Amino acid sequence: MSKTFERNGSSKNVLKDIHLGIRKGEIHALIGESGSGKSTLAEIIAGLQEASEGKVVFLDDHQQMDVQMIFQNPDRSLNPKMKNVDIVTERLIIEKITKQARMNRAKELFALVNLPEDALDKYPNQLSGGQKQRVAIARALTVNPRLLIADEITSALDPITSLEVLKLLKGLASKYGYSVLYITHHIQSLKNFADCYSVIYQGGIIDSGPIEQLFISPKASYTKELMGAQLALAPKIRHK
Ligand SMILES: Nc1ncnc2c1ncn2[C@@H]1O[C@H](COP(=O)(O)OP(=O)(O)O)[C@@H](O)[C@H]1O
Ligand SMILES: [Mg+2]
Asked: How many domains does the chain have?
């Protein structure tokens, strides 16, 4: 697929002839620097934006509604005026399910994402950053998705909390068999998490393969550069 934005008479080609396959149950990492087109691609797959050319094809009996997205900033993606219980079960209200059934489902979802039950009666702002992302994950799971797209969901979290959130996503994916498109620019976090990877650079996929390849012998010189830059940064962060 391709995507071009038209604005003020000029056009900007943001995604260029993208070919990306995500298999059932796979954790697929999408790696790329800021502005490379990751979020645009994610939103097209999730049906929040339209491709200019090409399309997303769902195999088996999958549909667009089977795709759920978790966003980078929970303060923007979670309504601060709604209690967590209503956030995670909002879609069930539309389906006219009883209040008691909704509460039971909310309790179930909170247990899945390791949130205390008393957080259901709280507002997002009363929770920590990591807990807020757990609420966002719980909300995505309400409708039993087949594909979960996580767009830099740990970028605002400290390393330990990030790791816990990744472990949770991986555990749930293997329990329920859904696929994950995990978007990040932090390569080291992928080591024990992702199954395969694709690197996006200026709107095109320039490298992809099984995750071991990324750490042993990445194909593209850009990928090596990206990894080198992160390794160079790592010690500085540790010694702070
Ligand atoms: N609605 C839009 N209109 C015009 N340009 C956009 C729009 N959304 C994103 N872009 C541009 O597309 C490019 C890719 O953005 P994005 O997909 O958000 O990248 P990433 O998530 O990798 O940081 C950027 O140059 C951005 O400015
Ligand atoms: Mg983005």
From this structure: 1
This prediction's pTM: 0.92
Question: Could you identify the residue written with the tokens 């390849």?
Answer: 213
Whether residue 165 lies inside any domain: the answer is yes
Tens of pLDDT, residue by residue over 165-201, are 999 999 999 999 999 999 998 888 898 899 999 999 9
- Residue 64 maps to which CATH number? 3.40.50.300
Cβ atoms within 10 Å of 125's Cβ, excluding its own: 10
Rounded to the nearest angstrom, the distance between the alpha carbon of 14 and the centre of ligand 1 is: 7
Supply the residue whose CA is at minimum distance from atom 14 of ligand 1: 37
Q: Which tokens is 171 given?
A: 């555990």
For the stretch 3-12, contacts whose Cβ atoms lie closer than 8 Å and that sit 24 or more positions apart, written own/partner, are 3/37, 3/40, 3/41, 3/44, 3/49, 3/51, 3/52, 3/203, 4/52
Q: Is the separation of the CB atoms in 109 and 130 below 8 Å?
A: no
Report residues whose beta carbon is within 6 angstroms of any ligand 1 atom. 5, 7, 12, 14, 32, 34-40
Give a yes or no: residue 169 inside a domain: yes
pLDDT tens digits along 131-160:
999 999 999 999 889 999 999 999 889 989
